[in-house]
């Protein structure tokens, strides 16, 4: 009996689910076996977790339903070890776990909240990096709303912090929200967009503390540099993200931040049977700079990976997908937002879009991102191709 080429995808976020779905629709099931390993049985709309925490309904489709009819095998388990020399992944689940062998591995474990070495973050802070943690924050905010209100501190003035602070303040006007920024609020935005952000914070009653560093999170608040103590009934930690440490522990070549170093086709430079996508990958964009962690980057790196895998396995040419970072889409509550384009250096362009139009565009992006998970091959070839003989190496070409 002919050996099926075993493809294992670690992680079923935007990047992992997108890659798995496309591989299932592009490769013949007679020649390939695709297994997705994910710690949760649901697809998490990470782009909307700040909405979930604030109290809005956000769906979490069952991955079994998302992959129904594709032939993909879903393993609800946590990857604990990647052994690229033996080409196996160790997993842990309710049944004790085991090992999965692979011929091609797609690493898409994404990122999680970064505590920045600040004491008390794990014990006392909430975050919105995952669905369970967002739901815990939602329960806490519900409890405060049922009482006599309370104080919410959001630590971090990046996109996650801004989105969380404005969403919570708009959805729960009975709570006093403070946003703590290490530098100037909206420093990476164009001056006009920065002014719009400040006006929205004022309108929503958000207190902004700039040039403030948090040195410790405590049960009843935070301690800032200089000894200032800020009281809080719920501290939301949104001070950035770090990648899953599994890649660094596996022997794959990674950067100092733990992202997997890849070539232009998202293939590991140290282990060619491994591809990396999404937040897990250190991918150089068309502007010569590393792509930032974002949903857009997940889409571009994901497509490049499955185009390369399909090309190499079927002996066909590999399409080179564009790798670009065009800007940020920042929701400011449900009715406002900012669309901030950037130049090739990643610097904000003077022109921007703000207000209701920006909010509608962002809502559309969220809907399309989820729709694409259900319909991964939209606009792409869908013919299932047979795997070619081992050793066929196609010639790469640029896409039109």
TrEMBL record:
> What are the residue boundaries of the FAD/NAD(P)-binding domain, all occurrences included?
6-289
Q: Which Gene3D superfamilies match?
A: 3.50.50.100
Protein's UniProt keywords contain Oxidoreductase: yes
One GO MF term, please? NAD(P)H dehydrogenase (quinone) activity
Q: Cofactors per UniProt?
A: FAD
Coiled coil start-end: none
What protein is this chain from? Oxidoreductase
* Natural source organism: Prauserella muralis
Q: Does S-adenosyl-L-methionine appear among the keywords?
A: no
Q: Which UniProt keywords are listed? A: FAD, Flavoprotein, Oxidoreductase
SUPFAM superfamilies documented for this protein: FAD/NAD(P)-binding domain
């Amino acid at each position: 009996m002919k050996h099926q080429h075993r493809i294992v995808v670690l992680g079923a976020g935007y990047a992992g689910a997108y890659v798995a779905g496309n591989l299932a629709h592009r490769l013949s099931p007679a020649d390939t076996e695709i297994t997705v390993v994910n710690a949760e049985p649901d697809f998490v709309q990470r782009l909307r977790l700040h909405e979930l925490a604030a109290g809005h309904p956000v769906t979490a489709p069952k991955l079994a339903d998302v992959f129904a009819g594709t032939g993909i095998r879903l393993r609800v388990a946590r990857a604990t070890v990647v052994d690229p020399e033996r080409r196996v992944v160790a997993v842990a689940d309710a049944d004790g776990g085991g090992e999965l062998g692979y011929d091609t591995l797609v690493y898409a474990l994404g990122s999680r909240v970064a505590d920045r070495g600040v004491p008390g973050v794990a014990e006392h802070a909430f975050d919105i990096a995952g669905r369970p943690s967002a739901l815990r924050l939602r329960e806490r905010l519900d409890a405060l709303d049922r009482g006599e209100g309370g104080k919410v501190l959001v630590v971090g003035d990046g996109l996650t912090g801004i989105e969380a602070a404005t969403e919570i303040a708009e959805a729960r006007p009975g709570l006093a929200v403070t946003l703590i920024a290490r530098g100037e609020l909206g420093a990476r935005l164009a001056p006009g967009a920065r002014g719009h952000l400040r006006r929205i914070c004022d309108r929503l009653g958000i207190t902004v503390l700039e040039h403030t560093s948090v040195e410790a999170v405590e049960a009843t608040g935070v301690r800032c540099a200089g000894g200032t103590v800020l009281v809080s009934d719920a501290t939301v930690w949104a001070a950035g993200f770090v990648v899953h440490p599994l890649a660094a522990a596996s022997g794959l070549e990674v950067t100092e931040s733990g992202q997997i170093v890849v070539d232009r086709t998202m293939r590991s430079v140290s282990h060619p049977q491994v591809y990396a996508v999404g937040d897990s990958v250190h991918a150089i964009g068309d502007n010569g700079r590393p792509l930032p962690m974002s949903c857009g980057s997940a889409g571009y790196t994901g497509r490049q990976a499955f185009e390369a895998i399909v090309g190499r396995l079927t002996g066909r040419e590999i399409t080179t997908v564009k790798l670009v970072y065009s800007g940020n889409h920042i929701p400011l509550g449900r009715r406002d937002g900012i669309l901030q384009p950037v130049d090739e250096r990643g610097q904000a362009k003077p022109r921007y879009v703000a207000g209701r139009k920006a909010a509608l565009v962002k809502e559309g992006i969220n809907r399309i991102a989820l729709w694409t998970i259900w319909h991964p091959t939209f606009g792409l070839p869908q013919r299932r191709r047979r795997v070619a003989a081992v050793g066929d190496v196609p010639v790469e070409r640029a896409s039109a």
